Structures are given as C-alpha cells and as structure tokens.
Amino acid sequence: MSLASYCRSQARACAVLGSPRYAALLTEVARDVESGGPCAAALAGYADAAFDAAIPLRFMAAVHGLALSGRAPELAAHYAAADVPEDVVWQAFRDAVAAWPEWIADWLTRPPQTNEVGRAVPLLAGLLAAVDATPLPIRLFELGSSAGLNLRADHFHWAAGDLAWGPADSPVAFDNAWRGDVPEWLRGAAERHPRVEIVERAGCDPSPLDPRSPRDALALRAYVWPDQPARLARLDGALRLAQRIPVRVERSGAADFLAETTTAPGTLTIVWHSVMRQYVPADEWSLVRTHLDRLAAASTPDAAFAHIAFEPTGTAEDRDGFRLTVRLGAADPRILAHAAPHGIPAFERSAPLVQQQ
Hints:
Number of strands: 11
Shape: globular
Mean pLDDT: 94
Largest sheet: 8 strands, mixed
Radius of gyration: 21 Å
Structural class: alpha/beta
Strand content: 15-25%
Low-confidence stretches: none
Helix content: 40-55%
C-alpha cells in the first residue's frame, strides 16, 4: 500500500469513527503527498513503512501537537471549530507542516501513544465479570500501558440507563456507556461489587509515558482527534487522576514483563490489554501466550487468574466492534461483549461468562 493510499484508508477510518475533520484533512494529505507538497517532504523516507507503524496517525499527532503547544496558533483556532470551512483548515494545516519540519520529523520517530481512556468501559466490564466469579482483592497488570491511565479505571465513572458504577465525582465519566440494555450478568456484577479492591497496579510498555510530565501529557493529547472534545475531556480527567494515584509502568516488552508475573495467595491476578496486540511481533506474542497459559494453569480459587482482552480480530467482524474476551483460570476464553474501537459504546452479542442462579 502506498503512503497516499494509507492516508486515504486512515481518512475513511476517521470518518467512520466520528472525526470528519481528520477524514477531510487526511484526504488532502494524500493528495499533497502525491503532488510533492509539504506533506510529501515531511513524510519523505516513510514510503515503505509497514502498515502497523501507523505513520498517518503519527503525522497527524505531530501537527496536532503544534496546535496544542501554541506553535501553530492559526491552526489551533480552526481545529475544533465546526463552522470553519475545510479548505481554510487545510491551508492552516499545510502551512504548519511547511513551517515545522524538524518538529514533525522528531514526532514521526516516536511510537504511537493512544492511551484511549474510553477502552476502560469494556475492560471494566471484563473485570467485574472476573471479580464476580472470584471475589478477591485484585492485582491488576496491563500490557501496552502507555501512560498507565487505564490502570486507574476503578476511579472512573460509567453510566448506562439506570445503572451507574464508579465514583460519582470522578473527573472521568462515561454516559451512555452501553448500547441497548445492560446485560444482566454485568448489571448483577456491578450491583454486587459497587467498589473493587485493587491492591497492586503495574504495567509495561516499550516506550512508557509519564502522565505527570508536560511533554508526555502533550503527546497523549496530540493523539486525540481535535474535533472529539469529549475524548479530550476524559483524557484530561485521567491525567488529573494520575497526579494522585500512583502506578508503576515498566519499560519492557509484554513477554519480558509477564515472565516475572505470578499468581499470589489471597488475590485475583488480572492481566488485561486493549488494542495493542497489533503492535507486538508474532514471535513475542507467542511467548506472551505461553506465559498467559502458565498463569492460567497455576490459577486456584485462592490464587486466581483472569485474562481480559479488548482487541480487534483483524477480520471483517471488526467493522461491527472489537471483541471483549475474558478467560478465567484455565477455562477457555469467552466473548462477553463488543465495543466501538475507542471503547464506547459497548454492547452484548453473546452469552454471559458465569450463569447466575
């Protein structure tokens, strides 16, 4: 796939995921790449980049970072304003690209850092199902944590219809978190466990970010699409929570991190991850699966283990939502729900993990 085609593919994805501004801009970026404009110069050397390198998203984050940091004030003034004509936004975007080549070149070398807080909605559903089946204090471990924002997910608040869970005064709140009726297994688990006890929080990432660092917080904000203010508001709330809730995120690959992970008496050890599988090489993921199987085999009622994953399948099924799967101990994984790629809304398509009496 050519770089211009990749930009057009990302433009279509942005249109589907509710960012008409990025859909329009990425279409223009593709044309600019083909015509040899400033975007072509900025992206020179990336024509043969692998699809999973997410070069269009890195590029858009670089330019958004210019706007957020005050380096491109004209673009910043237009970015989130729905009434500004797209050709005006595009001209400001193109001018910013032409004016800041070194800034953009630096951002293109960084791995994508989309620590999407909305994905906490399906992850928490899986956690509630797991703790309902094994009501023990939780050790929570995350693969591909980025800044570790979702390791604080028990401090988020979500609501769906007449059901709500999590602190009502949380700076991170999700309304209409579920599409359709909340499934009975989740309603029951949420009512039985209005709070969960997390006694340990840790994660890993090859290039972790520190949410308390202004530079890293800018990177996280830059990866949110500028015409989606609700996502930006949730991210800002999660960054505020990160100031007071400590989390350990190790600079490590997923396999090396899991190699040091064991179950522990009196606790439920949960390993979860969301939309990170695609960035892990196949040989490393094979080791990850080996370690997950080891933990599953070691699971007992008093030292339990669960694996929660919110990931795409890489098939046409993803058009209708990514899968939430939960594996309790050595049992087979179960598909509990699906959700939009950014996590909300979630919705049920399959049977519950645990049949309630």
